[in-house]
UniProtKB/TrEMBL annotation:
Chain segments annotated as coiled-coil in the UniProt record: none
SUPFAM superfamilies assigned: DinB/YfiT-like putative metalloenzymes
Lineage per the UniProt record: Bacteria, Pseudomonadati, Pseudomonadota, Alphaproteobacteria, Hyphomicrobiales
Name of this protein: DUF1993 domain-containing protein
Pfam families named in the record: DUF1993
InterPro entries: DinB/YfiT-like (IPR034660), DUF1993 (IPR018531)
Source species of the chain: Bradyrhizobium jicamae
Length: 179
């Protein structure tokens, strides 16, 4: 029997947010070892036409926050990326994990029977079934911004790799028996 969709989605968001917290910790530690402030990372971006690092962190957190708010018929917390320092970004990730846990406790998959309408610029909108909202909107946007934040850190010289990005699997690693 498979896990309920909302439980699985909550676990994905939670474990990947924990990965993001680990990436931020690694960046902060390495910058402090170099006697530099991690605040220098705040202006970093991959391309001139992309949002800078703080936006990527906030946009990553927006997806689980919006998911939890939708599940519980609440308003999603909002954060202004321009007003967050490095410590504020770290706190925002932790606050998102807490909000997700609080708002999704006891929610069952019947929530997925509801539709979700998302306003887009120019008076346009997109509508999803609950399942499509999770699979086609929330998760792809979440991973896009998570990977972009990871890429910015790598591009700025933070010594992280795929093992850091895949840290959510560490507890599943086993050693094969010889023979």
């Amino acid at each position: 029997m498979s896990d309920p969709v909302l439980k699985r989605t909550t676990e994905i968001f939670t474990t990947r947010l924990q990965v993001l917290a680990g990436l931020l910790d690694a960046a902060e530690t390495q910058w402090r070892e170099k006697a530099e402030s991690p605040e220098t990372l705040l202006a970093a971006r991959l391309s001139h036409d992309m949002f800078p690092f703080p936006h990527q962190i906030v946009f990553t957190c927006n997806q689980p926050n919006q998911f939890a708010a939708w599940c519980s018929d609440a308003a999603a917390p909002e954060a202004d990326p321009a007003k967050l320092d490095f410590a504020g970004l770290k706190r925002h990730v932790q606050d998102t994990i807490a909000y997700l846990s609080e708002r999704t406790a006891g929610i069952d998959d019947r929530v997925l029977d509801r539709d979700k309408r998302i306003a887009l610029p120019g008076g346009r909108f997109i509508s999803f079934t609950g399942h499509l909202y999770v699979d086609e909107w929330l998760l792809p946007n979440f991973y896009f911004h998570l990977v972009t934040a990871y890429d910015i850190l790598r591009h700025q010289g933070v010594r992280i790799g795929k093992a850091n990005y895949m840290a959510h699997l560490a507890g599943r690693v086993r050693t094969a028996k010889a023979g």
